């Protein structure tokens, strides 16, 4: 395949034709912040935090959707770029709760990382703020859309599994919001609580209810495991604090990897020191169920009992 | 140190001689302060009114270089008033009578003449030291950097033995080492006359043991040259090649002009360092070494505690740890040297060194160990000389006061003394490049007493030239009562104030440590 | 020594008489939050974070200053205790900037830890808020008194560890503030910048300037080592981020505890200084040129070898270093004696 050579921050780098400036920069060892971009999802270019300066271009293009071309001269941290990123962060923070104190994402949040990196201490201007109710009506996922930065990663990852596509953008302008159809809570939607969206959310808008209050990210350790409940081979992280495994989280999903609630619960049962009671929706209400029922083993067990009996 | 650092806080009486502890050893200084807060008596002997002297109950502002007179005077009072520890002297020491005779003439009145300390004050301090339940003596370069440095150390030991303030907790004779691993460099045999653990090169069985461990027929028996003698040899053309690792003698040694001349005369000079130091600039080959953050190893601190240094990052650029470079050079010279890691080197050290025999990396993971540590289950030795001195009986070694080699005269009327500053370290190669310390304390000045300044018409901040018979430097004056009349002081940290151009290379006859603490200078106002 | 046995959260524990309830709980591995307490400092008892419920006592008691007595029955997380702690946290947060977003102590801050533990999201009452200027006119320490919770640990550390008493409480009531005499800055005071106050501050009010500008607490790896400066041999942790040393923090050192001096704590900048030698240099016509290791080592070996064979081993001399490790000094001594064949080895400053 054809190659192109470009210069990034004075360093020459050769990449395959078709590579984005973002990936070329990574290749050359330069970090460019991103919110909406996810390697496993298609380009999007909405958040614009990844802008760079390219010689001869009038605007600052988003590097995640700009193709590297021969002879291109790129600056990833020029004063104009830094200024633009600061403004984006200030805009986001103008409508973001100052909640890091107790936020579950504190320590693993891109908004926080970049605010620190660019020394943006708070909103540059006091804007209008959302005050959405925190949604925790289902037993698995807490949604705090006040913290949502509308990067759309949850939307795209959810849509990767055809029969799901539960959440999407709703409303317009300041009122734009990620929501299930008819803006019902997840608990009332077709959501299967697979946790794909939680795995990709760059901020604290989506978090696991079963891990809430259990520990802060810097106290927790993650260990990857592969689910064996079916042959999709989905990847999860065992979350432990000290000596104890306290929960299971989905890892960033690829297209062929559906991730499902059953798998996650099954791993919880297998690995957690004190697995919580599984909950399933029955007649529109979540109720605690037995492990065999949660894992869909009810029938098998009955049969086994019969054979043995 | 005969005793651990933490013991200092427990002493009832602290005699600090020639150590500005709170500035040059701040953390040991904390122990001194703690003791004082707890009601202990602190006596500081120093020509300067240092920070620690300000804390003291008694400041003995002695004349530079008169330490032996002071120490002998204290011993004299203690003996003549019958305050010494008779039991200890009888059971644990020898040659007391010789000592008694030698110090007899150091009457408080005679000592007053030599040191400038009033006789009554001397008596009072002597009684305090002798009468204390536990008394400790701290000292540093103020004691050792004199032509009589070794004798000073004897004088300190004599006093401690006389009162039995040694071989028990909270007491002892405690030299505070200026550099992180001077203790270790000495322990490891980086000295001309001894191998590791002070095993003499003159002893046949020692040499045989090392030769066989190192796979050789024999080892040289003749003691080698000291730094000063090496430099002498180089300037006379007898030393042709030198290999210098991590030292900067151009700035740290006395009479810098002479040092440069000597190094320039060499046929070949290799310097291995982390920066292109003033010495490295004279080299034919410079080898880039890894810093302490880039390698594993151990340092031995001033209380003989062997502690781990751990690699935190990869060496910068192509730098390599010193131990690897030494192995490479040895191998290239036909003596293959190869070690997996410093842990393996430590195993070899332990196998050859009785006082380190029980020390190993796995043990050091649990914390530092104070040598002597003869076996793997020995807990280490916080306090030396308990019950018995290493040589058996403690020997009194009488010493006589000798005036400094260079005294002020008509032409050079002032005494220059050098030392350390809180914010800096040694020749400044590290502390001048931290992005913080040099920002805060960026230029050096000359401390001078108000009356001397007045004689010369100096005002605060004036630029002055300080000259000795050997060289001169320029810096700004700071008028202060920290120094008494007749004395000026500055540090040796700042390359642009290379004060060792001035200092006197006259050395102690035994330790060969130069007399950096006293030389005669004159001060003139420039512009 | 006499001992007492008491019951904490239903478990019995026996401790020496004179122990506090806090110490007794620690023995059972029961965690009680504290803000003003520090094992190395005198007890202050002012923050009240450590309150517990003691059967028979009329009020909640502060466990850091209450002696354990025989038969005592203690609850450390009863509803009343939790309620009290929440109120204390709300009061503190009412006058605290919500800065965790970029605060460098985030991740290592007791206020944050406890707010999370007790689910206190913000101050319950929005009170008057301080607007102090952030003090950073010295190269070592940043003081942001807006974040100060007035626990007084820095005051006690400066007096009791450092023996300096540079900072103390000043003014009264809402205006109470920890400051050097005359409310000057540290740079204008007698401060020696040991940073021992920073090491004990439970929140982000006192921060190491260099370290905190470069890394977040959860990004650094800590490597325990020994100070390269004076002979005291203090231990500390090098803080490493992305393969670089970004700072130094206290550990519990054998010699020094958590105390360090300005050189040990703030003198690490030389490690990554641009002047560091990064390649072997060989002097040609009076100028240094970069060389490969192989060239340099071979040249050294050849020249030293030639002098040895031409003039004998005594024409060679070696200076070892009080700054290098024991292992390196040993090897250099071995090299001098076994390879060069002379005892001409010394080090510069036997001081
Ligand atoms: S919920 Fe998270 S992933 Fe979804 S749009 Fe908002 S910030 Fe992005
Ligand atoms: S989402 Fe990120 S920035 Fe927002 S409160 Fe949580 S941790 Fe802070
Ligand atoms: S001091 Fe603690 S609570 Fe305050 S802003 Fe900093 S991290 Fe947050
Ligand atoms: S840095 Fe040291 S001297 Fe300065 S205020 Fe803090 S504790 Fe006191
Ligand atoms: S500055 Fe820190 S240690 Fe000092 S009183 Fe405030 S919170 Fe406590
Ligand atoms: S921290 Fe200070 S006192 Fe401690 S070893 Fe280092 S230089 Fe010495
Ligand atoms: S920790 Fe007990 S009152 Fe502050």
List keywords for this structure.
heterotrimer; A: 309 residues; alpha+beta; Ubiquitin-like (UB roll); 3 domains; four-stranded mixed β-sheet; B: 527 residues; alpha/beta; Barwin-like endoglucanases; five-stranded parallel β-sheet; 20 helices; 21 strands; binds iron/sulfur cluster; binds FE2/S2 (inorganic) cluster
Explain briefly what this protein structure is.
The complex is a heterotrimer of chains A (309), B (527) and C (351). Chain B is α/β, with parallel strands linked by helices.
Q: What is the SS-derived class of chain C?
A: alpha+beta
- The CATH superfamily of the largest domain in chain B appears as Dimethylsulfoxide Reductase, domain 2
Could you name the CATH topology of the largest domain in chain B? Dimethylsulfoxide Reductase, domain 2
Biggest interface: chains and residue counts?
A: B-C, 146 and 107 residues
Strand residue percentage of chain C? 15-25%
What is the average per-residue confidence, as pLDDT of chain C, rounded to a whole number? Answer: 90
> Please, how many domains of chain B?
3
CATH architecture title of the largest domain in chain B:
3-Layer(aba) Sandwich
CATH architecture grouping of the domain at 3-77 in chain C: Roll
Count of separate DSSP helical elements of chain B: 20
| Distance between the first and last residues' Cα of chain B | 47 Å
Secondary-structure-derived class of chain B: alpha/beta
Task: Describe the structure in your own words.
The complex is a heterotrimer of chains A (309), B (527) and C (351). By secondary structure, chain A is α+β, with helices and mostly antiparallel strands. Chain A is built from 8 helices and 13 strands. Chain A folds into 3 domains: 3-93, Ubiquitin-like (UB roll); 130-271, Alpha-Beta Plaits, CATH 3.30.70; 279-308, no CATH class. In chain A, the strands form 5 sheets. A 4-stranded mixed sheet of chain A has the order 2-1-4-3, with helices on one face. In chain A, strands 9-10-11 form a 3-stranded antiparallel sheet. The longest helix of chain A has 16 residues, at 79-94. The longest helix of chain B is centred in the first third of the chain and has 14 residues, at 67-80. Mean pLDDT of chain B is 84; it is low at 145-149. With 527 residues, chain B is an alpha/beta fold. Chain B is globular, with a radius of gyration of 24 Å. In chain B, helix 3 links the parallel strand 2 and strand 3 (58-60). Chain B folds into 3 domains: 5-176, Dimethylsulfoxide Reductase, domain 2; 182-224 and 289-370, Rossmann fold; 414-525, Barwin-like endoglucanases (Beta Barrel), CATH 2.40.40.20. Chain B contains 20 helices and 21 strands. In chain B, helix 4 (67-80) packs parallel to helix 10 (149-162). Chain B starts with 12 loop residues before the first strand and ends with a strand. By secondary structure, chain C is α+β, with helices and mostly antiparallel strands. Chain C has helices at residues 21-27, 79-94, 110-117, 153-161, 196-200, 209-214, 262-266, 293-311, 326-340; strands spanning 3-8, 11-16, 51-54, 61-62, 73-75, 141-143, 167-170, 177-180, 206-208, 221-226, 235-241, 244-250, 281-284, 287-290, 316-320, 345-347. Chain C has a 5-stranded mixed sheet with strand order 2-1-5-3-4, sandwiched between helices. In chain C, strands 10-11-12 form a 3-stranded antiparallel sheet. Chain C starts with a strand and ends with a strand. The mean pLDDT of chain C is 90. The chains are: A alpha+beta (309), B alpha/beta (527), C alpha+beta (351). Chains in contact: A-C, B-C. At the B-C interface, helix 2, helix 11, helix 13, strand 7 and strand 8 of B face strand 10, strand 11, helix 7, strand 13 and helix 8 of C. Strand 7 (241-245) of chain B pairs parallel with strand 15 of chain C. The structure holds iron/sulfur cluster (6 copies) and FE2/S2 (inorganic) cluster. Residues 148-154, 178, 200-201, 203, 205-206 of chain A line the site of one iron/sulfur cluster.
């Amino acid at each position: 395949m054809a190659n192109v050579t470009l210069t990034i921050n004075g360093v020459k780098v050769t990449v395959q034709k078709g590579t984005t400036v973002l990936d070329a920069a990574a290749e050359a060892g330069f970090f460019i912040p991103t919110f909406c971009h996810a390697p496993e999802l298609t380009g999007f270019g909405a958040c614009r935090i990844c802008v760079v300066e390219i010689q001869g271009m009038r605007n600052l293009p988003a590097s995640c959707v700009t193709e590297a071309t021969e002879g291109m001269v790129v600056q990833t941290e020029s004063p104009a770029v830094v200024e633009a990123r600061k403004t984006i962060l200030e805009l986001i923070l103008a409508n973001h709760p100052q909640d890091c104190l107790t936020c579950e994402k504190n320590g693993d949040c891109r908004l926080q990382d970049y605010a620190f990196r660019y020394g943006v201490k708070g909103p540059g201007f006091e804007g209008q703020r959302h005050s959405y109710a925190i949604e925790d009506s289902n037993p698995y996922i807490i949604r705090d859309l006040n913290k949502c930065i509308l990067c759309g990663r949850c939307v795209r990852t959810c849509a990767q599994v055809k029969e799901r596509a539960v959440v999407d953008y709703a409303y317009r302008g300041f009122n734009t919001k990620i929501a299930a159809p008819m803006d019902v809570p997840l608990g009332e939607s077709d959501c299967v609580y697979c946790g794909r969206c939680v795995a990709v959310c760059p901020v604290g808008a989506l978090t696991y209810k079963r891990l809430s209050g259990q520990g802060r990210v810097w106290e927790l350790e993650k260990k990857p495991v592969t689910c064996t409940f079916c042959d999709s081979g989905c990847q999860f992280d065992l979350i432990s604090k000290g000596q104890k495994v306290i929960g299971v989280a989905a890892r960033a999903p690829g297209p062929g990897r559906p991730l499902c609630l059953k798998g996650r619960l099954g791993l919880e049962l297998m690995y957690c020191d004190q697995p919580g009671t599984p909950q399933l929706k029955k007649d529109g209400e979540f109720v605690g169920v037995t492990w065999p029922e949660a894992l869909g083993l009810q029938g098998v067990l009955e049969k086994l009992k019969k054979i043995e009996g | 140190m005969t005793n651990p650092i933490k013991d200092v806080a427990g002493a009832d009486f602290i005699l600090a001689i020639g150590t500005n502890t709170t500035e040059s050893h701040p953390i040991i200084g904390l122990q001194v302060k703690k003791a004082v807060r707890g009601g202990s008596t602190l006596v500081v002997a120093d020509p300067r009114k240092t920070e620690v002297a300000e804390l003291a109950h008694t400041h003995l502002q002695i004349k530079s270089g008169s330490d032996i007179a002071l120490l002998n005077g204290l011993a004299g009072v203690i003996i003549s008033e019958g305050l010494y520890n008779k039991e200890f002297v009888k059971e644990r020491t020898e040659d007391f009578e010789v000592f008694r005779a030698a110090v007899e003439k150091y009457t408080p009145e005679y000592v007053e003449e030599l040191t400038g300390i009033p006789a009554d004050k001397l008596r009072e301090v002597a009684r305090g030291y002798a009468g204390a339940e536990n008394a400790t003596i701290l000292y540093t370069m103020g004691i050792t950097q004199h032509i009589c440095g070794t004798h000073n150390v004897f004088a300190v030991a004599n006093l401690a033995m006389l009162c039995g303030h040694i071989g028990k907790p909270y007491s002892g004779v405690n030299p505070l080492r200026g550099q992180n691993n001077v203790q270790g460099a000495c322990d490891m045999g980086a000295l001309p006359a001894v191998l590791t653990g002070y095993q003499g090169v003159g002893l046949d069985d020692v040499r045989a043991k090392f030769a066989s461990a190192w796979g050789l027929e024999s080892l040289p028996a003749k003691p080698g040259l000291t730094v000063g003698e090496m430099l002498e040899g180089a300037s006379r053309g007898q030393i042709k090649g030198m290999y210098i690792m991590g030292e900067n003698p151009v700035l740290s040694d006395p009479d810098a002009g002479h040092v440069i001349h000597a190094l320039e005369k060499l046929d070949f000079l290799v310097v291995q360092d982390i920066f292109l130091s003033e010495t490295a600039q004279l080299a034919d080959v410079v080898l880039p070494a890894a810093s302490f953050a880039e390698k594993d190893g151990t340092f031995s601190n001033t209380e003989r505690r062997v502690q781990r240094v751990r690699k935190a990052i990869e060496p910068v650029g192509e730098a390599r740890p010193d131990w690897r470079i030494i192995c490479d050079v040895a191998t290239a010279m036909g003596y293959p040297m190869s070690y997996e890691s410093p842990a393996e080197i430590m195993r070899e050290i332990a196998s050859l060194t009785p006082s380190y025999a029980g020390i190993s990396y796995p043990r050091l993971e649990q914390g530092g160990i104070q040598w002597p540590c003869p076996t793997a289950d020995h807990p280490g030795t916080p306090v030396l000389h308990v019950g018995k001195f290493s040589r058996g009986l403690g020997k009194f070694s009488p010493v006589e006061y000798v005036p400094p080699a260079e005294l002020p005269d008509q032409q050079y009327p002032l005494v220059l003394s050098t030392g350390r500053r809180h914010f800096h370290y040694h020749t400044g190669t590290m502390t001048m490049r931290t992005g913080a310390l040099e920002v805060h304390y960026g230029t050096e000045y000359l401390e001078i007493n108000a009356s001397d300044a007045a004689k010369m018409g100096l005002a605060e901040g004036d630029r002055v030239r300080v000259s000795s018979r050997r060289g001169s430097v320029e810096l700004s004056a700071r008028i202060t009562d920290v120094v008494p009349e007749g004395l000026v002081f500055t540090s040796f940290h700042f390359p642009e104030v290379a004060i060792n151009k001035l200092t006197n290379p006259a050395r102690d006859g035994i330790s060969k440590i130069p007399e950096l603490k006293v030389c005669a200078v004159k001060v003139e106002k420039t512009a | 020594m006499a001992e007492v046995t008491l019951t904490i959260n239903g478990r019995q524990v026996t401790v020496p008489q004179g122990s506090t309830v806090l110490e007794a709980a620690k023995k059972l591995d029961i965690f009680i939050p504290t803000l003003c307490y520090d094992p190395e400092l005198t007890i202050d008892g002012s923050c009240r974070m450590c309150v517990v419920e003691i059967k028979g006592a009329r009020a909640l008691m502060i466990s850091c200053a209450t002696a354990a007595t025989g038969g005592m029955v203690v609850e450390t997380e009863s509803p009343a205790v939790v309620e009290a702690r929440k109120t204390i946290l709300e009061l503190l947060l009412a006058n605290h900037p919500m800065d965790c977003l970029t605060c460098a102590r985030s991740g290592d801050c007791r206020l944050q830890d406890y707010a999370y533990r007790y689910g206190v999201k913000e101050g319950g009452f929005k009170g008057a808020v301080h607007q102090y200027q952030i003090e950073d006119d010295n190269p070592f320490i940043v003081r942001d008194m807006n974040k100060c919770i007035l626990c007084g640990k820095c005051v006690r550390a400066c007096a009791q560890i450092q023996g300096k008493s540079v900072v103390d409480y000043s003014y009264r009531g809402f205006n109470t503030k920890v400051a050097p005499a005359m409310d000057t800055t540290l740079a204008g005071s007698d401060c020696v910048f040991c940073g021992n106050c920073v090491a004990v501050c439970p929140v982000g009010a006192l921060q190491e300037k260099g370290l905190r500008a470069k890394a977040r607490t959860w990004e650094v790896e800590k490597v325990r080592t020994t100070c390269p400066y004076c002979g005291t041999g203090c231990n500390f942790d090098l803080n490493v981020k992305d393969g670089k040393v970004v700072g130094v923090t206290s550990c519990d050192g054998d010699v020094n505890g958590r105390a360090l001096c300005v050189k040990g704590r703030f003198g690490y900048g030389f490690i990554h200084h641009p002047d560091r030698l990064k390649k072997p240099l060989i002097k040609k016509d009076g100028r240094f040129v970069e060389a490969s290791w192989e060239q340099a080592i071979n040249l050294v070996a050849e020249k030293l070898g030639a002098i040895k064979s031409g003039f004998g081993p005594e024409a060679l001399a070696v200076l070892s270093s009080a700054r290098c490790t024991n292992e390196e000094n040993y090897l250099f001594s071995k090299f001098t004696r076994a390879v060069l064949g002379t005892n001409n080895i010394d080090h510069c400053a036997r001081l």
